Description:
Elements: H1 2-35, H2 38-48, E1 53-58, H3 65-76, E2 80-86, H4 88-95, H5 102-110, E3 117-122, H6 128-136, E4 142-146, H7 160-164, E5 168-171, H8 179-196, H9 201-208, H10 213-219, H11 233-239, E6 251-256, H12 263-274, E7 278-283, H13 286-292
Parallel strand pairs: 1-2, 1-4, 2-3, 4-5, 6-7
Helix pairs in contact: 8-9
Bound molecules: cytidine-5'-triphosphate.
Cytidine-5'-triphosphate is lined by residues 56, 58-61, 66-67, 70, 145-146, 148, 173-174, 177-180.
Region (Disordered): 200-224
GO molecular function: ethanolamine-phosphate cytidylyltransferase activity
Organism: Citrus sinensis (Sweet orange)
Amino acid sequence: MISEGKEQSARILATCLIAGAVMVAGFSLLTLYLAAPNDRWLQWTRKKKKPVRVYMDGCFDMMHYGHCNALRQARALGDQLVVGVVSDAEIIANKGPPVTPLHERMIMVNAVKWVDEVISDAPYAITKDFMKKLFDEYNIDYIIHGDDPCVLPDGTDAYELAKKAGRYKQIKRTEGVSSTDIVGRMLLCVRERSISDSHNHSSLQRQFSHGHNQKVEERGSGGTRVSHFLPTSRRIVQFSNGKGPGPDARIIYIDGAFDLFHAGHVEILRIARGLGDFLLVGIHNDQTVRLKNPSC
Ligand code: CTP
């Protein structure tokens, strides 16, 4: 009888102790919340939050600043950017052969500072299976594309499924620059050169074009459309890393035309950067480039 009473009071005591401990812990957390400066509290909660992962796909053929600007905007819509580089076969099936093969396009996309991960051989359209893979394996929250329509050969929208799933976001396409446009400029160069060399320019056009002659003819010899990309000082700082060389930095200088910026340029810049601590790049102006290559 006595031992039964003791057991009961021990149980009551234990319950009281546990309840007390829970109350003290709750009180401490509340005090921490109230006492912590707002920004530190926000940082703490943000760290706990899962990063927003966004996916952008594309051909990235003859990569240009319009593509880089698209990647910059896509990255700004999340915390991590995963980029799908479309396979050669898929590009051929959907819009004609690319100028640059997949491995070169991969080098270019990988070199962009806003890109966190790259998926090789991505499909041209967001299929049901691929979308599932993006969500389940790559933890993608949103699929991003420029605000130009992306229509498949059968007339349907390549991003229809993502839109229906409510997981699609759009960025503003950079007007006045495109791979087709660049091919057009190249053709104009070829035509000028072939005329000055008194050769049959149409045979050269055939040799270089991939079905883009019509666009060149439409624009005439006056050149291509004017780019609407505004390189304000704020935007230029975003594209650069904003860092100057340290006091003892070994500064490497490299210059060039960097015309039709390609995987070879990326590689030489990477090697040059490895020779020192800071890489300064000089870009020849159009006049200098023309002197070197008078027919363009
Ligand atoms: N993009 C852009 N501005 C451009 C060109 C492309 O914002 N001037 C965007 C596209 O909307 C897309 C991504 O970059 O989200 C990849 O584009 P890509 O598949 O390479 O092809 P295109 O849109 O056909 O671009 P281009 O004509 O230059 O090949």
